């Protein structure tokens, strides 16, 4: 009995198809990877550039809120304005970063009002974008319970929203709206401090950043 042997012309394509089928797996991303940073790199580096809100909250708790592949560096300094960080920009440039979280504005409102806020913020964003291949996440900060600066912060927050509309590589987290729409029975600020949120307020901020970063 004659046994037919397939020629090499037929064997090579069939063998290749079997290999491809065996190696196939789904790369469908989960919410964890549908983030501002994109990609599937093993480590995602986030640096927080802020003031006392970032420093006193231990980076808004992001070290425990985000998965282990996120490396959080918090260089926030109490009392710092956008101008202070511009004067210390070389310090920022020394930190390898994929995403910058910029949480500034309270001290700007107290020291400078709305004067120069847009130009200084633009300068800071431009520096961070040009010094490294990274994204920038701005913050529309809480209005605080200090009556004298609330409207100034509101104006500066609108400046941040306008910046987001004109620059594709930046985004923002609207903490102002989250705080203003808060309907809980407990306050977000202690009676003795109208500027710095209590733990409930910091938790709201941390959750807002977490959801934005993970794309939730």
User: Number of helical segments?
Assistant: 10
Q: State which percent range the strand residues make up.
A: 5-15%
Strand and helix order: HEHHEHHEHHEHEHH
Task: Characterize the main sheet.
Answer: 5 strands, parallel
Describe the structure.
The chain has 216 residues and is α/β, with parallel strands linked by helices. The protein has one domain (27-214): SGNH hydrolase (Rossmann fold, 3-Layer(aba) Sandwich), CATH 3.40.50. Helix content is 46%, strand content 13%. The chain has a five-stranded parallel β-sheet, with helices on both faces. Helix 7 packs across helix 8. It starts with 7 loop residues before the first helix and ends with a helix.
Summarize this, please?
The protein has 216 residues and is an alpha/beta fold.
Strand-helix topology:
Blueprint: H1 8-23, E1 44-50, H2 52-56, H3 62-65, E2 70-74, H4 82-87, H5 89-93, E3 99-103, H6 106-111, H7 117-131, E4 135-140, H8 147-166, E5 170-174, H9 175-180, H10 199-214
Parallel strand pairs: 1-2, 1-3, 3-4, 4-5
Descriptive tags:
216 residues, alpha/beta, Rossmann fold, 5-stranded parallel sheet, 10 helices, 5 strands
């Amino acid at each position: 009995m004659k046994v037919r042997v397939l020629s090499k012309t037929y064997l090579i394509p069939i063998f290749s198809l079997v290999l491809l089928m065996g190696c196939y797996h789904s790369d469908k991303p989960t919410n964890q990877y549908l983030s501002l940073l994109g990609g599937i790199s093993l480590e995602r580096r986030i640096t927080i550039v802020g003031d006392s809100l970032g420093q006193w909250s231990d980076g808004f708790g992001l070290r425990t809120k985000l998965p282990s592949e996120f490396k959080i560096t918090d260089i926030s300094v109490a009392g710092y304005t956008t101008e202070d960080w511009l004067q210390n920009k070389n310090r920022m440039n020394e930190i390898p970063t994929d995403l910058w979280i910029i949480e500034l504005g309270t001290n700007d409102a107290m020291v400078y009002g709305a004067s120069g806020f847009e130009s200084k913020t633009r300068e800071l964003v431009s520096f961070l974008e040009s010094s490294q291949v990274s994204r920038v996440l701005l913050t529309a900060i809480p209005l605080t319970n200090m009556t004298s600066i609330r409207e100034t912060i509101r104006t500066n927050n609108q400046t941040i929203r306008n910046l987001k509309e004109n620059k594709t590589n930046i985004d923002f987290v609207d903490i102002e709206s989250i705080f203003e729409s808060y309907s809980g029975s407990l306050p977000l600020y202690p009676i003795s401090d109208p500027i710095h949120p209590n733990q409930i307020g910091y938790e709201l901020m941390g959750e807002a950043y977490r959801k934005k970063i993970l794309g939730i």
